[in-house]
Structures are given as structure tokens and as C-alpha cells.
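ok posting inputs for the zinc ion job
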Amino acid sequence: MNSGSELIRFCHKVYEKEFVAAYDGNLSIRLDSSRVLITPSGKNKGELSENDLLEIDLEGKVLRGSGRVSSEFRLHTYIYKIRPELNAVVHCHPVYTTAFATAGEGFTTPVFPEFILHLGKVPLCRYATPSTEDLIRSIEPYAAFSHAFLLENHGAVTAGKDISDAYYKMEKLEHTAKTLFTARKLGREKTIPRFKLKELYEVAENKFGIIPDKRNKFI
Ligand SMILES: [Zn+2]
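and the output
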């Protein structure tokens, strides 16, 4: 379900979970075909209340509210414009996920079956200056099929059918990054056997709605 109170609930959660520090990150929900509710710039997500949220149109014009709109609003409205089935966007800097993004590595090899079922392929989007059009261009190659993106040297973005879905994708991403990091401390990760992959991709597509990346499979 999407509502201002739900959006605030997940703003508090991203701070409690340490997916953001200080004033980092931004979260939004789609209200209807032309309006978005988004967090303001320069405020800690753990301290936000519903009155702080801003209603904007898809070009970033403030329709209601008095704060400064998040500098990353373009990232949010771009996703809403091209993916009508997605109604919430979460951008954070979780430590392990951001570490992988900084090491130049996306989550594109098949290691964890449930990660593939819930998130599919999570690409690494080349480095771009935050809050610019260039950041949009960096996610463009993957935007038609991906529900989650790593931003090189920066952080991550997830999108979902509602704010709960987008948030839990971020939580799953960070948990996976932490698990993979731990596996590497033990030596290395094993990938899922090739002969089991076709079956897994079919379940991901047919039961979980993961859109396959036709240009470049996991292997
Ligand atoms: Zn950021």
C-alpha cells in the first residue's frame, strides 16, 4: 500500500537500518499519473514527519509542501515515466552494497537463488555526478527490466510496486552484499550450477515477474 504515512514509516526504517547517514538518500511514491510524493532535501530520514514530504509533478515542480525538493528527484520521476507498473523508489547508501558499487562490481552472476527470484539481475551503472542528467543516462541501459541498480562509487536504487516492496528490495540487496562479502572472507563464493539455471530463470520470470535481460544473461 502507498500512502504518506507508509512512506514516512520506511524513511525511519532506512535510517534505523543504517542504509543512510546524515541527510543521505531519498524515497518517493507515485500518487497518480502526474503526481509524486518525495522526501525533501537536507533532512535526516529518521526525523521526517508527513508534513515534511513534498508533492511534485513529473518535472519536479513543487505542488504542495514548503521544503526544498530532493536533488535526485529526476531519478525518481524518470523511473515513474518509463515503468508504469512501479510506484515507489528508494535511493540509499547501504554500506556493503555501496562497497560493491565502489569496487566496480554489480550483482550479475548467479549466486543466491532467492536473490534472482526477487531482484533478478542488479547491474552496476557507470559513475555519474549525483543529481545530474548524467545519472539518469547511467541507469538508462538497464531501466526497462531492472528493479534495482548499483550506482558506481555512490550507492543503490530500488523500485517496487509500492513503498514496502521497494524498501524490502533494498534490504535484500544489502543482506546479499553482506553475505557475499562474508563468503569471500571464507575463501570464495560458488555459483549456482549451470544446468539448474534455466529452471530458476523460468520461475523468476513466471512466478515472480522478473523481466529477463535479453541482451545479456547472467552467464
Ligand atoms: Zn545518493
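notes: The two ends are 36 Å apart (CA to CA). The pocket of zinc ion is lined by residues 24, 91, 93, 130, 154-155 (CB under 6 Å).
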